[in-house]
Amino acid sequence: MARQYVTANINGEEIDFLCDPSQTLLDVLRDELQLTGTKEGCGTGDCGACSVTLDGVLVCSCLVLGAEAEGKTVETIEGMADGDELHPLQRKFIDHIALQCGICTPGLLVASRSLLEHNPNPSETEVRYWLAGNLCRCTGYQNIVTAVIDAAKEMRGN
Amino acid sequence: MGRAPSPWATSIKYEEKDLKIVGGNPSERADAADKVTGKARYTADYNLPGQLIGKVLRSPHAHANIRSIDTSAAEALTGVKAVVTCADFPDMAVEHAASGELMVNFRDVTRNVMAREKVYYDGHPVAAVAATSEAIALRALKLIKVDYEVLPHVIDVVEAMKPDAPVLHDDQFTKGVEPAPDKPSNIALRMESKLGDVEEGFNQADLIIEREFNTKPSHQGYIEPQASVATYTDGGQAEIWTSTQGHFVMRAQVAKLLQMDVSKVKVTAPELGGGFGGKNNVYLEPLAVILSRKSSRPVKMIMTRGEVFRATGPTSGTNVEIKIGATKDGKITAAQAVMKYQAGAFAGSSLPLAAITVFTRYDLENVLVTGYDVTSNRPKVAAYRAPGAPMVAFGVESVIDEIARALEIDPIEIRLLNAAKEGTQTHFGPQLGRVGYIETLEATRDHPNLNIPLSPNQGRGIATGFWFTLGAETSATLNINEDGTASLIFGTVDVTGGSRAAFAMIVAEELGIPYENVRTMSGDTSALGFNFMTAGSRGTAAGTTAAVKASRDAITRMCEVAARKWEIDVDQVEWQDGHARPAGANVGNFEPMSVAQIVKEAVWFGGTIAGHAEINVANGGPGFGAHVVDVEVDRQTGLVKVLRYTIIQDAGKAVFPDFVKGQFHGGAVQGIGMALNEEYIYDSNGVMENPGFLDYRIPVASDVPMIDTEIVEVPHPGNPYGVRGVGEVPIIPPLAAISNAIHDAVGIRMRDHPMSPPKVLKELDDAEQAEAAE
After folding, report:
1. Distance from A44 to chain B by nearest Cα, in Å?
2. Spatial separation of the C-alpha atoms in residues B224 and B217, rounded to whole Å
3. pLDDT mean values, one per 10 residues, chain A (158 residues)
4. Contact between residue B109 and residue B258 where contact means Cβ atoms under 8 Å apart
């Protein structure tokens, strides 16, 4: 099958790529664009390790085709820090030891940023339910929830 | 645990001292920034020029003879560069080796990585393909024709033990029974261990409670599927990047399976996306190497989540009978366990570990432990965090709770009354050294969470756990760099970043230099001598001993430089606060030399400075933990909600306390998932029905509450900082703690795992009917 030519804005840059029509956005990111920060844990949308935003909407990139990114804006973990300056969520994840093995961390950070865009002042319960699509097997979620609430506080400026 | 303790093993005596760094919580960690920016590299992130993609054809049957395999059509497909079957692997004789906490047998390992005569489980590999793309590799798998003769199968451990059960291995005769049986059986081993006389003990009891417990297999559930990248070069050398908890052990196993020299295999363990014991075993590595050898191209293989569930190590499903007798004052007079453990397709479950942990929280005079290691048509079990222990603790801690209630004794007091302590004689041989079970129980008794009032349908449960700490081969090299910083290369896999931080803290403490001046990294198999894997809670505990030894070795070298410069004897130089100093005023008046000053002089006075440890670390100090859980049971749906969770555990010494608490949280939530949800479900053909995270449901963030933790510190005398293993204990108590809490809430005793809504509802209905009948 002929490969498709796709143009998308990825982490603020206009990028074009060729992909197989059946290739997922996750595979395009990892295999075609070498953006390997986005992880694959299941390939069926159950674990959230491949979370990215597509035109600002939080998605599992394993459930989106690469061709669907045409003309859209994709934000991955690689675009989260501003150069050397970590995003407050990234800093708080480090401070609160919200990561152990780290394989779920990029997806959790992308999902957490999306949460704070929708709700800058989430309760513990709201954080837990928003992140319920992102599996973490190491931390028991406690330090992740704490880090998100703390980052939200800092981002609100208090 | 595999090996007997050696008299030549190394332990460094605990010394109490003022600590500047150890015991603090550093904000900077070597791995953290890369993990939050997506730069950390896991095996699946590695790609080699010209690499092929390898995929595995797996058995759709639970049990079948392989009559023939025809790979010709697959080989003819354009883009296919290699196809392998068992014919490409040498057969292996029976030979055992330690692989993490469990033992492996190479005769079976080669059959597990690639089926030979038979397939033994749904998902068992039968062939593998390397092709220029994943799509072509998958198409090629469909072109491989395997002629199977499907055989009757058996999954359940009790079923597999029946005399008329389908037998997996015609040459497996039960070991440990006299006279030796003349018929093959799924019972690979019967083991027995005892202390005193249980008959006599039960005669002394005022109350005897005997109960049966069943648990289903559960999976480690690491988020990173197994992955391997391998290249076999023309010189007959292999280089492998793989998701493993022990790259040296993987190197040994690959070399053995492929009949290569160890020196010709190099293994790198990139960042590991979780393991929990499930990445102690070899799966893809030898396949990737053989495919690379056959195709002359690098090969990359990644399992799907379905493959991970179907073909990699879940824990044993078990049937456990516990019988405990006690006097009316609550003193235990006898304890007996019969433990039946699924091993999966090949012998070798976590039974031996279950045997040594089952009652090892109590100081008992009369114990009888009988165990059965049973093969059945399931993937060969792998270690899972305190392998074998949660299931037996489920039984024992539930029965203790029942005894305490019957005798109207507080559940903590009855444990204190019978608590294991220094000098406690175990039924499996050794006496316990200095342990902190009593201190842990006392801290639990005094915890404010025990006084929080509960509402109707809410209940509180308590249970405790014990786990040992493995020592084993541990190597480390500490290089003192030319700018005065220090780099520690260690050879275990640091899954969490915790070991990297803890070792940096230890080295900084020993050398008397800032934490920021120490960099720690895991070396590949060419960087160090053999290291055993990260298993048995040994990573940080055993690594501490190696890091201390390497640090003290480097200090000796630095003192030597100062002594040569000052022209005095080396024993006239002492190391203090990061400086070599004259040992006393009479030695001479020399300006103390810092690390940076010493390395500048080092070339002239001897050469580059490094410290080494290549040691067999003596087994470490056992850890004990107590969990208190408050639950609410929904009588309409059977749903058990965890309201509050409290963990108190003896860490010996927490090098990095916030990280230790992270281990407590993670282990407990795995235990909560195991208790309430997680189980393997098979259809009538022995095919796994829930091989994905949607249907095999591990806990999500909204399932669990915040967890309160308290670290108890009773230093282990055989570790220089008193460190005990901490990673495994926290998964042990949750099953029993939750079961006890459910009883406290609604009066039912859950003895079948998982305690999922349908099972809880059924128990509630049964209890209601029984009450109505009365």
Report:
1. 8
2. 20
3. 93 97 97 97 98 98 98 98 96 97 98 98 98 98 98 93
4. no
